[in-house]
Amino acid sequence: MKNYWYRLVIPILLGLTLACSFTNPFSTQPPANHGNITITPAELQAIPPTPTPTTSPSSSPTPASTSTPELSPIINKTTINRLKEIGTLYQTNPGKLYWLDHSQYLAVQSPHQVVLYDTNTLVSIATFSVEEPYVILGFSVKEKLVAVTNDQVTIEIWDILTNEKQYSFHSPFMFLNAYFTSKGELAVDSIEEIAVSLLDPHTGDILQTFKGFQTAAPVYSTIFTKDNSKLIWISRGTIQLYDLQTKQLGPVISHEDFINSQALSPDGTLLVTSAGGTIDDSFQPLLYFWKTANGELINKMATDEMVWGLDFSAEGDILCGGAGKQIILWDSSNYTQLLNLSGFNDTVNYTSFSPDGRILAGTSFDNSIRLWKVIP
Q1: Cβ atoms within 10 A of the Cβ of 10, count?
Q2: What pLDDT digit, counting tens, does each position of 317-340 carry?
Q3: Per-residue model confidence (pLDDT) at position 348
Q4: Phi, psi values for residue 230, rounded to 5°
């Protein structure tokens, strides 16, 4: 009986992952507002034959060399008042953001498309697209590769610059999620047990497997931190950090409601989570601030709307996240609000500081990606 649960949830989870939006991924104008991405579950009777993805060739197969522009100041509490929007990009259902080559390039992932942009000119230099039943799993910053699947088992690896398929293999198990780590390994969350395996993206061979996280929920997710020092386990309202150097699990951190977003400070000492909770006898959107060493709750504060896409600045002194149609920036030491960035026409679902700390980007359900820099 203990293994029957995943036989029941596999069809549902597979349908949730493979279903897609019918918006046109090649629109060059701001698309109509679609709000949250709606996914329709489908019954899985048999895995269909694997069709070849439809790819959209890039206008230039390799990034064109450009002269090095003068670097803008780093975004911190001293320079934040000179933060100005430098441009807006449009892409259907933009989500996760990836920074490449010292922040010279920005890759934007959608459910069925990855577009690579030059952050100096804001021009797209490469595009990779797939059609249903395929879905984008992740993008490798290290090798500029895109991982796709159509059945939660088969993984195909494509080069975004050449639009050529490089590798194809079967995962050792059916998976819930898959994504690339900063080291270029493919992390795969198993659907059959609570475990995440690192695969060689060229061969599909298992390099390492991590276990130990405990949850009664059949659905969970993992995140390897940007510096690849920690593995973060998340399931509903529970989050736990695993130190990849000491091989120790940290304290279990629990919430009243589902965790919507999380961010770990650059020095690894502070964890911030976004979830519903009770404060002053009222249930409302909250930000929680935790000490990672012992799981102590340092502070919690109410926000007007649920916060999504949390991220820390490169220096760790600023925390940002999307709240409604704006990006809010807070002082991470005293939790005060520093600045609001507006201009979006729908909910902001992702924010990200560039690794060099000089650019802030945010995506929204209005299909826009907006970028800010400090003006000297």
Answers
A1: 17
A2: 999 999 999 999 999 999 999 999
A3: 98
A4: -140, 155
Q: Which has the minimum average pLDDT: 35-49, 90-104, 232-246?
A: 35-49
* Rounded Cα distance, 371 and 353, in Å: 10
Q: What is the pLDDT of residue 68?
A: 59
Please name the residues in contact with 39: beta carbons below 8 A apart, sequence gap of 6 or more: 15, 16, 17, 19, 20
Q: Are 91 and 115 in contact (CB under 8 A)?
A: yes
- pLDDT cut 90: percent of the chain above it: 79
Distances (CA, A) of 189 to 65, 144, 218, 301: 38, 22, 12, 32
- The pLDDT confidence band at residue 225, using thresholds 50, 70 and 90, is very high
Contacts of 334 (CB under 8 A, 6+ apart): none
- Cα angle 117, 123, 128 (rounded to 5 degrees) comes to 50
Give residues with Cβ within 8 angstroms of 164, minimum separation 6: 158
Structural domains of the chain sorted by starting position, each given as residue range(s) with its CATH number in brackets = 4-28+37-44+71-374 (2.130.10.10)
Residue 14 sits at φ, ψ, to 5 deg, of -65, -40
> Does residue 22 carry a pLDDT above 90?
no
Q: Which residues in 263-286 are b (16+ Cβ under 10 Å) and which e? A: bbbbebebbbbbbbbeeeeeeebb
* Angle, alpha carbons 334-339-344 (nearest 5°): 135
Query: Can you tell me the distance from the alpha carbon of 107 to that of 114, in angstroms, rounded to the nearest whole number?
Result: 7
Smallest CA-to-CA distance from 245 within 272, 224, 262 is with 224
Core vs surface per residue 180-191: b (16+ CB within 10 A) or e: bbeeebbbbbbb
Question: Token pair 């952050």 is at which residue?
Answer: 119
Specify which residues 128 forms β-bridges with. Answer: 114
Class of residue 65 by CB neighbours under 10 A (exposed 0-12, middle 13-18, buried 19+): exposed
Residue 63 or residue 111, greater confidence: 111
Reduce the DSSP state of residue 72 to 3 states and report it.
coil
Give the other-Cβ count within 10 Å of 51's Cβ.
12
Confidence of residue 67 (pLDDT cuts 50, 70, 90): low
Stretch 200-221: mean pLDDT, rounded?
Answer: 92
